Amino acid sequence: MGIRNTEVLRYWPALEPYIELALSYSLGEYEACDVLAALEAGRMQAWAVAQDGDLLCVVVTEVIRYPRRIVVNLLFGAGEQMTAWRPLIETLKAWALERGAHEVRVIGRPGWERALSNFGFVKAYTVLTCPITGNMQ
Questions:
Q1: What is the pLDDT of residues 17-63, one digit of tens each?
Q2: Which of 71, 83, 112, 113 is least enclosed by beta carbons within 10 angstroms?
Q3: Average pLDDT over residues 91-115
Q4: How far apart are CA 40 and CA 130, in angstroms?
């Protein structure tokens, strides 16, 4: 389930395609090499579900420490068979609780709201962006 930062490089060939897929839907905040560096440094955490030797999903999280709250932010997720994600989500929630977190948060595309509602997630925010001309790459 959880992959230690010291083991990430060993599993990277299997993890990278899922992370690349998730990143393809992002706004360009990260590239796979950035995620790998953060995972190895322990700034992000990798989680995976496998069944019969086949990887079903990969999730990447980060712990955010606000002055009055600790949040485990689910940054990226990609995979198949959402029903197979249940043990991962439950493990992630327990891991977050052990670290004193107040919530697990997801900022994602609209489809995640429906997909994660079965796991106890509720819509809390709407995120808006305004690209600044001249700073786009």
A1: 999 999 999 989 999 999 999 999 999 999 999 888 889 999 999 99
A2: 83
A3: 91
A4: 32
Reduce the DSSP state of residue 106 to 3 states and report it.
strand
pLDDT of amino acid 42: 96
In angstroms, the CA 75 to CA 117 distance is 17
In a domain, 94, yes or no: yes
What range defines the domain where residue 75 resides? 2-117
Closest-CA residue to 47 (of 64, 22, 65) = 22
User: How far is it, in rounded angstroms, from Cα 20 to Cα 24?
Assistant: 6
pTM (2 d.p.): 0.89
CATH number of the domain to which 44 belongs: 3.40.630.30
Number of domains observed in the structure of the chain: 1
Residues above pLDDT 70, as percent of the chain: 97
Residue 39 in any domain: the answer is yes
Quote the strand ranges of the chain, DSSP E. 2-3, 45-51, 54-65, 70-79, 103-106
* 54 exposure class (CB count in 10 Å sphere: 0-12, 13-18, 19+): exposed
